[in-house]
Amino acid sequence: MNYEYLAGKGFDNYRKTLNDPESLIWYKIEETVKKFAPSIVGITTKSQNYAAACNVAKIVKSVNNNTLVVFGGPHATLIKGELLNNPAIDIGVLREGEETLVEILDAFEGSKPLSAIKGIVYREGDNIFETQRREFIDDLDSLPFPVTVAQDCLIDFDKYPRKSFKYIFAIRGCPFSCSFCGSRYTWSRKVRFRSVENIIEEIREIQRLGIDDIHFDDDTWGIKKSFIQNLCIAIKEQCPGLRWSCEIHVKFVDDETISFMKSAGCHSIQIGVESGNNEILKLLNKNSTIEDVFAAANIIKKHNIHLQTFFIVGFPQETEETLHDTISAMTSIPADFLIYSIFTPYYGTKLFNHCKELGIIVDDFDISLFNHQSPENYFCPNIPKDEFKECIRELEKTVDRINNRNKLKYYFSREGYRKFKEKGFKYTMLKMLRIVFGS
User: Fold this and answer.
1) How far is it, in rounded angstroms, from Cα 335 to Cα 271?
2) What is the pLDDT of residues 336-377, one digit of tens each?
């Protein structure tokens, strides 16, 4: 991940492809739709890929206008009825979609009207309707494992890299309410736990594919200390050889918890720092201070666990001083890898609405221009635009330099030696040469 490339040539390539209907990717999608001639196409979208998802919907309708196009995912949930301003989209699924999609399929076969399905927006003539809100799924153990379903129904399953199936959700919901995040609108702030037995069963199913390194993709892993400990004990006893990673809130980091996680095979942890300034953290509702972050990072590194840190710059409240504090934290926290973003406002979140109130988001806001490394991102009026742009260009070089240095150190560590044996000499040397010479 080279941030200087993502914000430069990478972004230019993305915009060129997005706006070029003759691009190879759109041709391949059209070819696939024609080949399989689906009656219904479901598309999951986040805000960052919404513009591309709309292109796919347009292609589907160009092949067969009678194909039902259903959108779901975080962005659909956040914008609701506005979704259907696009004539290529027929139905939007709000919040969790597993049960909703089954009912949409039933409706398509004529067994029930769309108006009877909870948790959707749909078009009828020139009118757009939103149905009653669907309750969240309480029994998460009732859901099938993605890796099992994929083997049964995913076309060309064997062509997918095995690591595509390494991701697991142990819980749904995040108790925090960060003002830049839309997670609670999809999952709610109420945390719902899968049983430890159910999680272990899924892990063992994944291991049977030859995957022994998984990532818990929860917004905030664990939440309850007792749940973390019980799951770690079960992993140690029933999933020998498993290695895993997760993202955890710094408030849940203590020596005993990290010790349990390490003993159960946890080798990498991500923490959301966001800002190095406590006043900004307070405005973001992060429920943490920069002192909490340093304490958590030191505990994680004490147990020799690889640490990744998330940072965001350019919040609406950002000043030159707070930006300096964040840059200082980036270079001071003992992290092995920095994940860096420029603030991107998501529809429906508190900070999106705040930006609209400030007049820095206008009515014709083009979401395709903005993603986490977009050079177009500028939502901090307290810093002159030219000065901010110059600062983040230098920051991208700094982050790339720090990450590349740490990658080289990694390849000469015990963990790097394990990767060397796993991937082979040629793969490892090519990775190292790319780091040294860039590509």
Assistant:
1) 10
2) 999 999 999 998 899 999 999 999 998 888 888 998 999 999
The three-point CA angle 404-431-416 to 5° equals 75
The answer to whether 26 touches 51, Cβ cutoff 8 Å, is no
Half-sphere exposure of 211 (CA within 13 A, CB side): 20
- Distance between CA atoms of 343 and 356, rounded to whole angstroms? 14
- How many CB atoms within 10 Å of residue 393? 14
Entry field: residues in the chain: 439
Side chain identity at residue 76, one-letter code = A
Tens of pLDDT, residues 65-90: 999 999 999 999 999 999 999 999 99
The DSSP bridge pattern shows strands 213-216 and 167-168 to be parallel
- Rounded to an integer, the average pLDDT of 401-412 is 83
Distance CA 219, CA 249 (A): 9
Contact status, residue 88 vs residue 61, Cβ threshold 8 Å: yes
Distance CA 264, CA 178 (A): 30
Is the Cβ–Cβ distance between 266 and 296 less than 8 Å? no
Instruction: State the number of CA atoms in the 13 A half-sphere of 123 facing the CB.
Output: 17
- All domains in the chain, ordered by first residue: 37-130 (3.40.50.280)
Read off the pTM: 0.91
d(CA 19, CA 334): 41
How many C-beta neighbours within 10 Å does residue 128 have? Answer: 16
Evaluate whether 271 touches 245 at the Cβ level (below 8 Å).
no
